[in-house]
Amino acid sequence: MEGSGEDNRMAKIRTVDGGQLDVPIAVLKVSGYFSDFLEGSESVNEELDISPFQLVTKEMMEYVVEFSKLAILYKSPNISRPIFHQSIYEVTWPVYAEFADKFDDEKLSHLILVADRLNNQPLLELLSAQLAIKIQKLEGKLEGTEKEKKDQTTQKIREYFQITDPFDSPESEKRIKAENEEAFEMFDLNDDDD
After folding, report:
1. Residue 14: which residues within 8 A CB-CB, separation 6 or more?
2. Residues forming CATH 3.30.710.10 domain(s) in the chain
3. pTM recorded for the entire structure
4. Which of 28, 37, 106, 134 registers the highest number of CB atoms within 10 A of its CB?
């Protein structure tokens, strides 16, 4: 992170939980939100208040900063696609795999939302790949016919994301399926057995 004068400038970040962090501007600019906000700014004398972002706690912002420093040192993670792997270590460089692999399901989901809100695309892609691998592992543990596996997968994913009631009523389910008929056909999500 050495080099231009811009790399040495610091900003104070205030988070929703009252936390404060001093972060190099170059590190902040890995996130599109900060990059857009700081575009053309000659100096940052005030603290950047991101407390309106309810998801961005000090802990989550520390993870964003940690990742952003890695992204500057090693460039953005190269995520191989499609993601049909059993481990994040098969998808990207070890330094990024170690970062993504340290989060439990709750923190992973929370950090994905934070990365999305701050428009940190490299972090969002890395964590989404980790989530995809976790979902594939859920599918790999299932037994039965393809139809039974599909039903089990849906239930496991609902449990994983703590979705208790996907539809308010049978009418709501019909309306949503009708509005998204193309997606149901494309991904063969209809309830019929063909």
Report:
1. 20, 47, 48, 49, 50, 51
2. 5-138
3. 0.75
4. 28
* Range list of β-strands (E), 8-165: 10-14, 20-24, 48-49
Strand partners, 20: 14
Q: Which CATH class is domain 5-138?
A: alpha beta
Q: Match 């599918």 to its residue by tokens.
A: 139
pLDDT at 180 over 90: no
Q: Closest Cα partner for 9 from 41, 49, 57? A: 41
What does the radius of gyration of the chain's CA atoms come to, in whole angstroms? 20
**Quick one: which of 91, 102, 117, 37 has its CA closest to 67?**
102
pLDDT tens digit sequence for 77-94: 888 777 888 899 999 999
**C-alpha distance across the termini of the chain, in Å:** 57
